[in-house]
Design brief:
By secondary structure, the chain is mainly alpha-helical. Helices cover about 45% and strands about 5% of the residues. A two-stranded antiparallel sheet has the order 1-2.
């Protein structure tokens, strides 16, 4: 049973999926952005069995950016990058 109000029927209507897809296509073509937030990117979770120690440093911005870019290029976590640097110290004596 539908009830009429000033704005028309208050009955809940569903939109057919094909109509919804057509509207989405038209809105994309017209340049409208979606209201839904984009999905969160997947997070790389790498566990470790080692005991960890929190270590905070105040670094020059250029050094920190270089280290971050290097870790991203190597596709390693900062912890692994730091371990590689420490291994180089040990190798040099």
């Amino acid at each position: 049973m539908s009830q009429d109000s000033f704005f028309g029927s208050t009955e809940i209507r569903t939109i057919p999926p094909e109509v919804e897809r057509a509207v989405e296509k038209l809105s994309d073509v017209a340049g409208f952005r979606h209201r839904e937030p984009p999905p969160d990117p997947p997070k790389r979770r790498r566990g470790t069995t080692q005991h960890l120690h929190n270590f905070t440093m105040r670094l020059a911005i250029t050094d920190a950016e270089r280290f971050i870019r290097w870790c991203e290029a190597e596709r390693i976590a900062y912890r692994e990058g730091f371990a590689r640097l420490v291994a180089k110290i040990d190798a040099e004596g």
